[in-house]
Amino acid sequence: MLPKIDTPLYEITLPLSKQKIKFRPFLVKEEKILLMAMESEEEEAVLLAIKQIVNNCCIDDINVDDLPILDLEYMFLQLRARSVGEIIDLEYKCNNEVKDEEGLDKPCNHIIKLSFNALEIYPEQDENHSCKIQLTQKLGVVMKYPDFKIMEKIRNLKESEILGKLVSSSIDYIYDEESIYYSKDVEEKELLDFVDSLTRDQFQKIQDFFDNIPKMKKTLDFKCGKCGYQEEMVLEGLQSFFV
Known about the structure:
Layout: E1 10-13, E2 20-23, H1 28-40, H2 43-57, H3 69-83, E3 87-93, E4 97-99, E5 105-107, E6 111-117, E7 132-134, E8 140-143, H4 148-154, H5 159-169, E9 171-175, E10 180-182, H6 188-196, H7 200-211, E11 217-223, E12 230-236
Antiparallel strand pairs: 1-2, 3-6, 4-5, 7-8, 8-9, 9-10, 11-12
Helix pairs in contact: 1-2, 2-3, 4-5, 5-6
């Protein structure tokens, strides 16, 4: 019988759910899963691959479907850093307009190489951001962060239906002066009807919650060595870290 290879274990605290998770680096078999997904260039395939890899590598018993998407992204970035290397190298094409020999505008197209340490990425959060939203003096809602199950629900919906479904699926509970109404105890149609009954201002308060959800974010200095164009480049969301 061949000997088994020991793998190191790491522990992190997830930024939104605050769960402490132990994990091992991903192995060749998980790297193959990711490469196949990235070759397909389909967002759904990449997200499914990330879910499977996180599930494989977690030592603790967790339900990946219940993790907020941000926690899933953060864990995967930590996994990638511990498995492949902390430094992520990216290449971008400079799209700054320059003059050609005939005086016509054309993209510079020079390739710029950038790098950063994945372990330094941590979700930024507005100090005023809250899951509790007061809609009237007597009525309010407490939201939950979108998880994999919610994203699955809205994936194939029409654009006009996505926001309403996202909001209704992300309500943890509704409260008034007399009681608390948990979404798990309420039929889906009732939640959709509740969302449809909101005023524009009330709905905007909930939409602001989604607009201000913490994000994986990193600002890099972008400078073209050919045309001299420079700006601050903001990477936001997991996929932008693997362009």
